[in-house]
């Protein structure tokens, strides 16, 4: 799978490259490229767009397309969760392990009325690590609850992207072109 760009008019959800050799291109995640006029700061339409595409060397089934699109959007969602959260101007790496550690620290602090505090977490990046010490349950909660909300928001956005795929675009064109 590759992200590519081209003229807007070149975007076709499905292209049969060769019926004889059974080569198909599936395209999705279309987005027009816009530019900004530096003098007016106004958005300018261009004739360009970006999209994702995958070559198939057989006629893809709807199940194959579902797996392809699901993996694509799941990867985007996972990457956004992993590296997109910023708390108090600090990037926070939300790996599954870190999420479990944050949850455990929060849950135990709640259960023990803060007796397990202070707790320290490493935020930032490898190049610029930032350490945060939480002394109270309230301080920890001000970090933990937004992190959980961020993960939920990312998951919800990913679900909406997958739900918005119109498989009829691919099914009707596959039926017509083969």
Question: Helices and strands in order, then pairings?
Answer:
Elements: E1 2-7, E2 14-18, E3 23-36, E4 43-56, H1 62-83, E5 85-87, E6 90-92, H2 96-111, E7 119-124, E8 129-134, H3 137-163, H4 168-177
Antiparallel strand pairs: 1-4, 2-3, 3-4, 5-6, 7-8
Helix pairs in contact: 1-3, 2-3
Task: From the structure above, extract its key features.
4 helices, 32% strand, 178 residues
How many β strands by DSSP? 8
Give me the strand/helix succession. Answer: EEEEHEEHEEHH
Q: What is the CA-based Rg, rounded?
A: 23 Å
- Strand arrangement in the largest pleated sheet: 1-4-3-2
| SS-derived structural category | alpha+beta
Estimate what percentage of residues fall within beta strands: 25-35%
Low-confidence parts, pLDDT < 50 over ≥5 residues?
A: none
Largest sheet: 4 strands, antiparallel
